[in-house]
């Protein structure tokens, strides 16, 4: 087990280095001069040159990367061009808002979709199976922004049950914060449940065809015991991987939902920073999202042996 953990950790290190280099390079390809943007249109050439020296932009690209990477390792992601605020605290505070929505949504979607997919596989080719597969196909085909707008129209404007736009922190107001989370979380749950139902069904069908399932049935075990005690654990492995991928994707791609519901999360911060050409914040957001994705997938890999012990044996 220790060897498995160490191998996964060592595999993550080159990925983190490559991600850091990619993020650094992408920002350098964006048109515009950060020094000129920071000083404004009235800045003189000598002022811009002095600012470029202060920011290290007069050095070669490899030197700039080494300086930037060293600062990042010490927790210094730079300062925002727009409001002169430290990037790391700003990104972390916005990330916590996004993570709050995404984690709740993925957890609820998993609790609903995984049992539904298992039941669909158990009742293969029945009315129940066709209904669940058809529903899943429809759900994953609906664009999230359109679904979010429909939910806003129905529950916010027509029925008036939930607040339409805005955000309140659960730490400040538990009831109010939960009310503001209902619609964005519901949007993500409805969409991602479709993906997980299909994945859980496919992996369960594969397991149900194996010999040990036939042997368990021959021993006289009930269908529910065969399904949940013997099939579910082995079938959940691939679904667990999909849950990790969905979690990582949503953490980095929730900008659409945050824009629809005007939520001050990391995706919204990245969009606003792109329009403002706030390079340090854009770079900080990209790096934080990329590292979060790598970390989520690393945790998924490390926990995978709980569902399939053969992974460690290999």
Automatic annotation (TrEMBL):
Gene Ontology CC entries for this record: plasma membrane
Main location: membrane
Keyword annotations from UniProtKB, A to Z: Cell membrane, Membrane, Transmembrane, Transmembrane helix, Transport
Localization per Swiss-Prot or TrEMBL: Cell membrane
SUPFAM superfamilies in the record: MetI-like
GO biological process: transmembrane transport
Annotated membrane topology: Multi-pass membrane protein
Name the UniProt record assigns to this protein: Peptide/nickel transport system permease protein
Organism per entry: Rhizobium wenxiniae
Native organism taxonomy: Bacteria, Pseudomonadati, Pseudomonadota, Alphaproteobacteria, Hyphomicrobiales
